[in-house]
Amino acid sequence: MNLTRFNILVPILLATLSSLSGCKNFPLYGNADETHTETPNTLISETLNASKSVIVEPILPPPTETPSVSSLEAVTFWEDLTAEFQLDLTIENKRLLTQRKWYAAHPAYIKRVVNRSRPYIYYIYQQAKQRGIPAELVLLPIVESAFDPFAYSHGRASGIWQFIPGTAKAYGLKQTWWYDGRRDVKASTDAAFEYLTRLNKQFDGDWLLALAAYNSGGGTVRKAVRYNKKRGLATDFWSLKLPKETQAYVPKLLAISQIFNDPSTYNITLPEIKNQAVVAVVDTESQIDIAQAALLADMSIESMYTHNPGFNRWATDPDGPHQLLVPIEKANNFAVALASLPKQERVSWSRYKIKSGDSLILIAKRNRTTPALLKDINHLKSNRIIAGKTLLIPSAAQHNNAYKLSLEQRMKAKASRKIKGKRKEHHYVQPGESFWKIAKQYNVNTRSLAKWNGMAPTDPLITGKKLTLWVAQSNMVAAQRGQIRKVNYKARNGDSYARIADKFNVSVKQIQRWNKINLARYLQPGELLTLYVDITNAP
User: Fold this and answer.
1) Which domains, and CATH codes, for the chain?
2) Residues carrying an active site annotation
């Protein structure tokens, strides 16, 4: 990107903060709702340091021609974007016309999607321009996800570019319990453009075939091309026999591009998008609680998540990326506040008493953190720990409900949405069960069952996982047969694993698997066991 550079340093007023450490901010994304006075494409690159004085000085490359103020004001984002269009938008056929009619008849949808794209679309455009690829591809997330960074499809695709896990991994998108790079707009945009460029080369520069391959897979398109070649038929996109979804996919992008290229013809008014970067990336250098980051940046927790949708949980990933997006006008204050906050105070900590048999690696794994972080915060020189001692473990600063856009809370919200005429039920997954088997038991649709739980039908099911179902009253009697409930059983004097298994009509091996216990160890009175019991056969 050709970015205007500014050195923005900490004000003299903050010079007494001797504990400040360096942080760098890099503006990346375009257009937020807030207005600001920063110069377009600002790059905040100077290390923030309280000992330095204020410098707000543009460092610009020598201009070959100085544009007038009036000419600068005349160029809107949409004019800039459409000037870089490269695809043939003069094509007219039935498939394209069908899609164009739909979009033209739904101006509210276009407005909603464009508004949703505000924090991201400028960055995406700049990346497309830098790579020299058609600017129409900037609009592809409208087709893929309606620019919803939290979108998750029945095919296990996620993010605005709808990457499936395998392709995401192939293009370097990290996926952990803490973080999903498919929803990180910067990372996924880079990966999507790399993937599309590669597909374009595979299909000899034909962007329509590349787009078809992005949707249905390169193998599917190559097979269709070979089929037509063998029969002496044309091998352009419009002539190929492709899946129905793909046959509509490419026309959708072309139809959207036609409308955005000439909105007045279709009685569409595009929301204004500022032609400049309005979001900056701040290096955090370590894990930080999302609520703490929002407080330091003077943002709501929800806004921090929408700017950083890649983070799944209450905090950033302890292994990185150690970066957060914030509105550009908040970046410097956030960086200063962050630099003055010691790393050990960026997440809250709870005390854990080490038990016999514990290891640092096991404790770290159980708490979704790293041994290195536990060693650092607990001042340990090695991985050796002693039973009876205590360790500080990272924990959320606020109640789970405060993190409304975390993965867990989004799934809860989706599962709790009421469906008229249906009753909410819960099912605990048993060994060997699948979405298909459970859906059949309750007489519900497999895709609906997965959707109610924020999953895809092909996602693996973990034994003991609690699923939400919305079941018609007429199906309840059939569903009750063989219905499983989670039971917490408190061991009594004289109990044994075999006796409990017999009592609840389960096996000892199941009790062992559900509770991850060593059967050689004696069962203690008062010990809590988790059981999954058929309520029709329960004692």
Assistant:
1) 77-266 (1.10.530.10), 279-345 (no CATH), 349-395 (3.10.350.10), 417-479 (3.10.350.10), 483-534 (3.10.350.10)
2) 144
